[in-house]
Amino acid sequence: MEIRAVSSEQYARCKTKILRFAQRCGEGRITSAALRAAQESDADLERGSQLLLMMDGRKAAGLSLLLDYGRTASFFVVHPDYRGKEITVQLIRRHIQDVGAYSCTVAVTNTPSLKQCFRAGLTAVDLFTGPTGKPTLLFISPSYESILSAKSR
């Protein structure tokens, strides 16, 4: 399997397929706000944004979308046939390597995603009530605060 970064032009062409995959394989755990942000985002995957696909030949095993370092939206989805292979960990680490920082929110009832965030080296820094009314953790990469403070200068 290999991770492929999707260009802005490719994103514009395949956005509908990506969102369908996320809805079909996300088991209802991706918020409507995150899906809406992905739908409304233009094809400009610059400045802290990236779409990664984990491919098994020509078949998508998983994907991860990061918009504005996760401040606008971030989500990851793995096809049921590929779960348990730490695909999410690989995708998150690649985002951090390529973009420099990563953040996401995960409901505390979503145990599989919580495990993957901790395994990827993310740190939970806040607990709040999420958009679905559930307690939700904010995760950030170790470099998150330093990258964003440097970008704001």
Q: How would you describe this protein?
A:
This protein is an alpha+beta fold. The chain has a single domain, classed as 3-Layer(aba) Sandwich (Aminopeptidase), CATH 3.40.630. Helices cover about 35% and strands about 30% of the residues. The protein is built from 5 helices and 7 strands, in the order βααβββαβαββα. The strands form 2 sheets. Strands 1-2-3-4 form a 4-stranded antiparallel beta sheet, sandwiched between helices. The protein has a 3-stranded antiparallel beta sheet with strand order 5-7-6, covered by helices on one side. β3 (about 60-65) and β4 (about 75-80) form a beta hairpin. The radius of gyration is 14 Å and the shape is globular. It starts with a strand and ends with a helix. The mean pLDDT is about 90. InterPro entries: Acyl_CoA_acyltransferase (IPR016181). It comes from Paenibacillus gansuensis. This is N-acetyltransferase domain-containing protein.
Give short descriptive properties of this protein.
153 residues, alpha+beta, 5 helices
Counting DSSP H or I runs of 4 or more residues, the number of helices is 5
- Output the radius of gyration: 14 Å
Distance between the termini: 39 Å
In the predicted model, the low-confidence regions spanning at least 5 consecutive residues are none
Say what the CATH topology is. Aminopeptidase
Q: How are the strands of the biggest sheet laid out side by side? A: 1-2-3-4
H/E element sequence: EHHEEEHEHEEH
Q: What is the average of the pLDDT values? A: 89
Tally of distinct domains: 1
How many E-type strands?
7
